[in-house]
Design goal:
The longest helix has 20 residues. Helix content is 35%, strand content 23%. The chain is an alpha/beta fold.
């Protein structure tokens, strides 16, 4: 999970009670151990998101919630990458990764709120957001902002945990949701949030939706802007 939030500092909504304050504090705690804890379980999702972005050869890619930059080495070298995140400690680790691995094509890493991006309209060929939607206090508003900066013909590429509809896993997710402020993300995130957002924007094309390893815990979603 990269970090990114979509409301003004201190504001809350119905998304598990998360706000920028909680998210920033949580990921300041996670930053020193983030790669150790999450790299392996989320590697396949990052590979899938990078593989989709790599189809935009030579394109300008926005990586929202870039975190420590775990997916950066997976991008095609022809791509130009701009990464944003709400957590300075996470961004500092991403910058260190770029320096230490000699990655090229990284055009910038910026401390930025994903709902208020400092970019012009229609300037990116793709927007990738690995493990970000469950972190957002206002996911629909953030999706609108990503759509704004996306070029016609571009796509939004997401990998995210989608909550179970029923059963023991759903019960566990609801239990964990009570601790979402400390975790920094929403474990029971329902597909309906994204599905309803798409339904309200019929001009968009859902080009791919599929569960991916490990154990189908995560969902790859690709949305094209005609």
């Amino acid at each position: 999970m990269g970090t990114n939030a979509g409301s003004r500092k201190g504001e809350t909504d119905g998304n598990g009670g998360l706000d920028n304050t909680h998210v920033t504090a949580a990921y300041a705690r996670w930053a020193p151990v983030y790669d150790l804890v999450f790299a392996a379980v989320m590697r396949n999702g990052r590979r899938n998101i990078a593989a989709a972005a790599n189809q935009h050869k030579g394109g300008l890619i926005l990586d929202v919630g870039i975190g420590t930059g775990l997916e950066l080495p997976m991008f095609d070298r022809s791509l130009r990458i701009v990464g944003v995140d709400l957590s300075l400690p996470m961004l500092e680790r991403a910058a260190r990764r770029v320096r230490e691995t000699g990655l090229s094509g990284i055009e910038g890493l910026a401390l930025m709120d994903g709902r208020r991006l400092g970019f012009a309209d229609a300037c990116f060929d793709a927007v990738v957001a690995p493990y970000v939607l469950t972190v957002l206090p206002e996911p629909e508003a953030s999706l609108d902002e990503w759509l704004r900066v996306l070029k016609p013909g571009g796509e939004i590429i997401l990998v995210n945990h989608v909550g179970a509809d029923a059963g023991p896993l759903a019960a566990m997710e609801i239990w964990l949701a009570r601790r979402s402020k400390a975790l920094g993300w929403r474990p029971e995130f329902p597909w309906a949030i994204l599905g309803d957002w798409l339904a309200a924007r019929p001009h968009l094309i859902l080009t791919e939706r599929r569960r991916i390893a490990p154990f189908g815990l995560f969902t790859l979603t690709r949305i094209t802007k005609p």
